[in-house]
Description:
Elements: E1 2-9, E2 14-22, E3 25-30, E4 40-42, E5 47-50, E6 52-57, H1 68-71, H2 75-91, E7 94-99, H3 106-115, E8 122-125, E9 130-132, E10 142-144, H4 147-159, E11 164-168, H5 187-199, E12 203-208, H6 211-220, E13 224-227, H7 233-241, E14 245-247, H8 251-258, H9 265-288, H10 310-317, H11 322-328, H12 331-337, E15 353-356, E16 372-375, E17 378-382
Parallel strand pairs: 1-4, 1-5, 6-7, 7-8, 9-10, 11-12, 12-13, 13-14
Antiparallel strand pairs: 1-2, 2-3, 5-15, 15-16, 16-17
Helix pairs in contact: 4-5, 6-7, 8-9, 10-11
Bound molecules: zinc ion.
Amino acid sequence: MLLRDARLxxxxxxxxxxxxxxxxxxxxxxxxxPRSDERCLGLDGRTLMPGLVxxxxxxxxxxxxxxxxxxxxxxAELALAESRNxxxxxxxxxxxxxxxxxxxxxxxxxxxxxxxxxxxxxxxANGRSITxxxxxxxxxxxxxxxxxxxxxxxREQVKRGADFIKFxxxxxxxxxxxxxxxxxxxxxELDALVDETHRHxxxxxxxxxxxxxxxxxxxxxxxxxxxxxxxDEEAIELMLSEExxxxxxxxxxxxxxxxxEWATPDTARKTEHIYERHIDSFARAVEAGVTxxxxxxxxxxxxxxxxxxxxxxxxxxxxxxxxxxxEAMTETAARTVGLDDCGTLDEGAHADLLVIQGDxxxxxxxxxxxxxxxxxxxxxxxxxPTEE
Length: 388
Ligand SMILES: [Zn+2]
């Protein structure tokens, strides 16, 4: 298939040209001559760009107000909810995700998507997220106490097929009784978690709100910090020197703040307190040159699956250029989470593509509703122009 006369847009391409899809991958990009038997579609100047990659989603959560409604779900119920959320995500133009774990259903969903049994984006998944006893996300996570148990918890996830390991360095907003500013894991536990993760060749992602948590995690050698809500100068310096990528998840507090009357009092109180500081923290990290990978925390309260592209707009509003924001949520996110051959228009990359009416650099909300989403060269949602 040849997609013709498109404005080709990626982190390193911005030109008018053609793109050839061969066996689900990008075969060639440039000024191409149609082959005699080739299907040709004229895009008439529409933007053709890589599908978005969301570095932080929760398919197990469906934007419910409280975690309680999810805790009591059976694995069968979770599997159905997760497959619906995966389909909504793909249809919205997100063709790759890092799924932050819950009960462990994600790993089954990932394999089902790979087999083509259910529609969904390419996934990396972690099994259960690791937290201290009673810590953030303990309802669905693996609780640990001490460095020996920390290693065992990592090994358990690896045994189940985890692509990366996630743990909670600080408390969280949506878990009652935990404090976002307090460092929950000890240095010994952090060192054990990171060392065991890297021993298996995986990357270590950690949930962090407070600055002390960010410093401890960076010093322990984590690869990504999620949220990074209260970063101070020292935390930002450490993230730079230790080459830690920030996944800001600006969508998460945005939706809670805008729906505060429906949030639980505990969640509302914590979020109002942190929203402004979260934005400021992100802006300072961008200014300092910290690597940013786009992620939404989709599934958290009022933060629904399929609204992921709004994160690009939030990142632009609070400090990234439009080009940098799109790069953060395509190429950088893919590289950060280990989704190979995604997020670019390189030859050989998966033909996971968005057809966008208009210029997303001028108006990033154009990303919210792609005219067509191609996944492995096949139409996943929307429509393509008729054949030439
Ligand atoms: Zn999250």
